[in-house]
């Protein structure tokens, strides 16, 4: 393995923590004997192009410095290649890093763990989801939760998490069930009404909401969480339980474990790893062992 590795940096992650985090992570990696170069991009497309060039050029690892969005971008460059992925998690949500047992908002510790993994096991294989040609590591959201994302991203004020809190209040006021057509694996297409359908490669999204609490990144399967039609009062009662994962026992919630799912619904956008995938219909499939994740805990792989 080459000792030349690449830091893939989002300087704006975590309100500027991305740029600051790159330095202690790089120092830890250099202290371990690695040669480190940094890749930035003028925008997401340019950053991904540069990351793919680094992978094609034989970099020993691609290290995403930022939040779940930056990790998602890095996945598009390394998935299906021998190049392992490291994560220095300094974003707002950091769901992927937490799921994998990686340090959060401690870039020096993350750098040391990545160096140890590069010199040791070389990373553990973890599964990814793939939908419409895009890989995702956490959860594909559709329905109420994706509508909150849609609305929040249209808002210009306020900033940060408060924007999404207000978007959620607005969507609650307009709450209505979604008419889905859903196919699980190669079974028959079913017509259902649901508040949301979440496709989990791992358990959480939105900074710790364990919507697919039983999902694992090493079993080759999605956990599909379906929240049936419910009133605003029921949703408000169930919502706090999502952080503990205890909502799965509610009678309005069902879970399916499958390797492939197709979803169709009018006026619904799919979001994965906090990024828009595009309007439904979408088909998602698991890709077992799609990436080697540096420093991943045993439970994640």
UniProtKB/TrEMBL annotation:
Transmembrane parts of this sequence: none
Matches recorded under Pfam families: DAGK_cat, YegS_C
Domain DAGKc positions: 1-135
Cofactor: Mg(2+)
InterPro entries: ATP-NAD_kinase_N, Diacylglycerol_kinase_cat_dom, Lipid_Phosphate_FormReg, NAD/diacylglycerol_kinase_sf, YegS/DAGK_C
Keywords: ATP-binding, Kinase, Lipid biosynthesis, Lipid metabolism, Nucleotide-binding, Phospholipid biosynthesis, Phospholipid metabolism, Transferase
SUPFAM superfamilies: NAD kinase/diacylglycerol kinase-like (SSF111331)
Keyword Zinc: no
Alphabetical list of PANTHER family matching this protein: LIPID KINASE YEGS (PTHR12358:SF106), SPHINGOSINE KINASE (PTHR12358)
Family the UniProt entry places it in: Belongs to the diacylglycerol/lipid kinase family.
Protein name (database record): DAGKc domain-containing protein
Source organism (scientific name): Streptomyces hiroshimensis
